[in-house]
Amino acid sequence: MPTSKRLWQQAAVSENDLKLRAKIYRRALEQLPREVDLWKECVKLEQPDEAKQLLAKAVQCVPHTVDLWLALAKLETYKNAQGVLQKAREANPTELRIYIAAAKLEEAQGNKQII
Predict the structure, then answer these.
(1) Domain count, the chain
(2) Is there a single domain that holds both residue 3 and residue 41?
(3) Cα–Cα distance between 107 and 104 in angstroms, integer?
(4) pLDDT bucket at 24, cuts 50 / 70 / 90
C-alpha cells in the first residue's frame, strides 16, 4: 500500500537511524507529494541547505501551505526571502501571515518606510 501515509509514517518512526528515517520520508514523498505532514517531517531531519531544497520542492507540490513558504523564507537570504514571500503572496493572496512575515523581514533590514 504505497499510498498509505500512515504506513509510511509508522515505518519512519520505527527507524532509529535519522538518515534512514529521512530516506523513508523521501520515498513516501515520491508516492504522496501532496502530504504536508510528510514534507514537514522530512525537512526537520535535514541540514539547512538540504532543507532549503526540500522546501523549494514542497512549495511547488503544495503551494497553498503557508507554513512551508514561511519556513523557506526563513532559510533564505534577504533578497531571496523577498522573492519567496512574493511567490507565497501570489499563491495565497488572502493569507495575512505572509504579509506579516514580509513586514518583519523588511523591519529586520531597517526598511521601515516600505512597511
Answers:
(1) 2
(2) yes
(3) 5
(4) very high
